[in-house]
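Components:
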Amino acid sequence: MLKILCFRSGKNLYGVETHYVKEINRNPEMTVIPLAPQMVAGLMNLRGQIISLLDFEVLLGYPTEQLKKHCIVFKKEKGEQDVMALLVEKAEAVLEVDEALCESPAPYLEIEFRNTIKFIAKLEKELLIIIDKEKLFKLREGSHVKIL
Amino acid sequence: MLKNEDFIQEFVEEAREHLINFERVLLGDLADLKKEQINDAFRAVHSIKGTAGFFGLDKIVLIAHSMEAILDLVNRKKIFLSETDIDLLLKAKDSLKILVNDVKNSEFYPTEEIISQLQSAESTLKSGIALNDQVTEKPIRKKADQFFNVFSFAPDVQSKIQAARRHGHIIYGIKIDLSQEYIKTIGGIPVIAENLTSVANVIVTTNRDGDTINFEKLSDGKVDESILFVLASSILEESLFIQVIGQTADRVHVLAEDWEKAVGTQSILPDSDKEPIEEKQDYLLQADNNEVSESLRVNVKLLDDLMNMASELVLGRNRLLTLLEHEKKKISGLTQVLQNVDRLTSSIQEKIMLTRMQPVGMLFNRYPRLIRDLSKKLDKKIELQIKGSEVELDKSILEGLSDPLVHLLRNAADHGIESASIRKEKGKSQIATITLKASYEGSLVNIEIIDDGKGVDFTKISKKALERKLYTENELKVMSEKELLKILFDPGFSTADALSEVSGRGVGMDVVRTNLEKMGGTIDITTKTDRGTSVKLTMPLTVSIIQSLVVSSNKIRMVIPQSDVQETIKIKKEFLNEKVESIKGKRVYRLRNTLIPVIYMCDLWNREQSVREDQDLKIVVLKLGNERFGLLVEELVGNEETLIKPLPAILKECGIYSGLTIMGDGKVAPILDIPGIARKMEIVNEPKTEKQTVVDPNGGNHLESDNSEDFVLFRGSGDEILALNIALIKRIDKIKKSQIERIGDHDYMTRCNEILRVIKPSDFLAINRIENDDDACYVITPKLVSHPIDILAKEIIENVNFEPLLDTVQFNIKGIFGTAVFRNKIILVINLYELLELAEPESFAFVSSQESSGRKILLVEDSPFFQKVEQNYLESGGYQVVLAANGTEALAILERETIDVVLTDIQMPVLDGYELLKKMRRRKEYDAIPIVAISALTGTSNRDKGLQRGFDRYEYKLDRESLLRTLDEVITNPNRGK
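Structure:
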């Protein structure tokens, strides 16, 4: 059973495995940094630690004008220098997903989502796109923005 | 079991330290090894053995024991260890280190080889000793036996002997010949007695039969023996003693130290088993005495945690202060409490940072071993000199330096130093020296690795760069040495030929530099062909907390480190256009006498933004090396003492930030990177302008001080290239020849309704004069002259920065300091004052007062160029000049000559100006001599500092008029000796 923290962006439901997540912040107080790459929405002070907030949509390449109010703060893994957080529209519940319901993404989906999809889970009412956290954050190195 | 684990860890750490000490002693100067140091080494190994025994770590015990035995032999028998012995001991130390590091598995390591090697070394040494003992002791003993047997070592005699020995005397037995011929030659028995008593104390005198004789009788001359034996003690050593008393060597014997014991106990051979235990116990007793130390072992993690907590405390304090700012008045006593908390927090943070400081010696101590191994491997003779090992750095910085330093040392040994035979051919000493030096410089620490090898091979760099396709041949052709050196830092570049294993492959200078920059440090290389290379690392002393200035524009807040800020200026909106002028689209501001570039802060990220002109603005004047520029901001929010947080990797590419900080209100703000801004906005040149390494025909080490100056190169009317210090130039204007009017013998032109005289250099200097038809030309207006005369130039070539090495032999023309070679061309360096003097003698000849003529000035200056310049100025003022190249030479000259004034540069090798000042002022006899500082730097802060430190005056090197005036003042009105 996978424990997935779900969040919305645009029309889709996404999720990441909870063991990567440190905490969720709603309405984070963010400082915008001029000249920062577009994916960096800003920086935030979390009890003395400075966290880089990356805009999820920009990372994927599909920026929208939606207000992003929630941020998912990730744990700092071994070897990593900076603490990262993902800025998303809305963080939702933690779901327990049966592995049997998970499928690998089809090739065209892989390209669309730039190889960040780990699984697609078939929930009752919709599809849950489970994102591979490590691959997602690799995107920050040299990411281009596709303008829709 | 847990407890045992803790202890084992402690043992491991202690053992490591002991092993480091052990190695250090062994690598020290062998000839100079004192008993103390051998004791240290012995104790180190002994401790390890003891504690290891407690844990049952038998293999460690065995190796330690064997090492101990060898050291004990060295100490007791005073034998010297050969190179092979030392290598063996070092190898044993390495084995021990491996075992200690992997303590739990140490019993499984194969140690038979090293132990048997140690044991055989031990027995070789032992047999060597025994042999020596046998060979030398027997003959002496035999003679001594017979000789000293004549004395009876009665208890009182023995106690006298012991007393004498305590005073450091040597005990001699003298056979005095009292035959008639001998007495006649000496001149009487009393003389014999006199000779002896003048340098010795007589203990006992006997005749041939063993009867005790009263020595006094000799003085009276009343002795009828033909031979006397005297036992005496003297402080003189043997050969001298023999000479003084006038006896022949065979009549004088030295009493061996343990003779009386031996005689007393009737055994002649030493007790070989008793001694070792006693002496070993001695060592241990000493060890106990030294254990009362003033330091504690603390776990590093604990210190790290403390550091973090202290940092957060600082942030918390900031927040507290901000929040309670307005409440201060409402709550009584709050202000004091807050001040207290503020002060304590800063102190705590500071002191905790200090706990992490360690002397670099701890790091440097590993390197003698490295160099020794490298020397052997590379078959070169290299000696490592370490200076400044007491300089302290933060522990994490020390750790970060370890790899880079190893890399650089290996580079020096591998690429820099030549083999002994090549060095001999070049006339260098066969043993090469690598100097590892640490020193403080303001809030930075410099670590230099200097070698006296062959210098950086530029052709090799070019070749490699071509091979790796980093640059084209054309690009490489025009590169200066500085640019070629930069290539060394390109990723993917490595000059290891045949990928020498010693330097490592692909571990290039770029990795070294990146690692350094991560810690906030920089690296710089200077080199001189055949003389050597110097790599200088500059590291920050401490890191986290800085004083900062918070500014804002457009509601965006930025933080600037206070150390980068020179001053702030307020500009009212009405005066904005007037004060901030625009030249070719770039904005400048007139700051006192200089124009500095300024930029709007918002321009950094938004070049198109419309400037809000309806506000008062502030200019923050920023420092960048010797350059200045201004940042226009809307508001100066305030000063804060803040914590620097590292910049996340993503933001590094912005180029203008050096870190982040959390403000008092909890919000994040970026810290501006001043050099980054300057680069991005193309405001100023690289702080270190292009320096040419001019080949010095006279030899001499230019790696120590930098005396290069800025010059403008131009052509007068001929083809010769003339040079004039930029510092002496006020302005250069382009004009048309037709603007120059000739009146009488002189040329003039008008500018801003002023009439200025113009001269052609060729009129006064012995250089070519070619009339050219070109209408365009330039006039150079000089500075620091009482009466400016413009100099006509047909062409302004460029600005350069170099140190001219003047050749004054070939061209000794008035008006020129001398010639120098630059980029393979000859340049004439103009002596402005002399030239102007030639043109208008009445205005420029300096008439020194009566008092000054003939006075002697001691000029202390290391730069040959400035020596020339200053000497010329001084002599033109009628003074006599004595030269010294540094403070030490100056002091020597002061001892032997009478000096009226000391004129000294500040930056000099060996002994600098400040030190010279200090030393001179300590001596009363120099009290009346005024000391004037001369500097190549203008600037009131330098001057104030100099005057504060005690210089009588502070003058600028190039300003002849002011200098001569000042000297005159200081001689005629000395107020010294107050």
